[in-house]
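Changelog entry

Holo records now carry the ligand SMILES as an explicit input line rather than a separate metadata file. Below, a converted record for zinc ion, shown in the new format.
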Amino acid sequence: MTVTAPSSPILTFDVNQLTPSFGYVFDARWLDPYESVVSILWKFVWMNRLASHEVVERIARQTVDPYAGMPATPQNINAQYLARTLRIRRQTVREAISLQSSLRSFSPELRYCSRCMARGYHSVLHQFGRLLICPLHARPLESRCRHCGQSSPYRIDAQLLDAPFKCPHCRAPYSPSWSSFAKRSALGKRERQALIRAYIG
Ligand SMILES: [Zn+2]
Ligand SMILES: [Zn+2]
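Structure line, unchanged by the conversion:
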């Protein structure tokens, strides 16, 4: 079923197996603390040239229409499968799909900081209803694309995953200075602490 030449970076899922015939390219060092599951999946799809609708189907706990998608919650996403497939800590995935509670509400729209997007980072913190500015850059969070003016629901769906760090409507990058996250420098101690403080609230 898998039609991949060994030299090709293109991978497809083997429909008969839970895992692909070849390993995926993924490096935990591409991630910053509290990276959202959308951001993690953008990197996964992008670096492996995966079909985003297949990824949605694979990570869903229940049968899902990948184009209708699903909310990014632990009830919908198979965190164990995702951690195993990407070879990242389960805790990383758990934080990426934080639970909504009476103390913590989420924005239903994708919210972003363009400077974070420039480093290839979207944080679960950006979705916290009570946070209106980016904890790293102290800039107001945005929800509308600067190019086409449309917002996007914060959901795991094929259209969103197919446009890594871009508006899924017009495909303009959320940051005009977007550069490869694989080459960016690591966050400093101060920046990490700012994220932890914002997470704990
Ligand atoms: Zn930021
Ligand atoms: Zn747009």
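Spot-checked after migration. Residues 37-48 form the longest helix (12 residues). Residues 150 and 169 are 7 Å apart (CA to CA).
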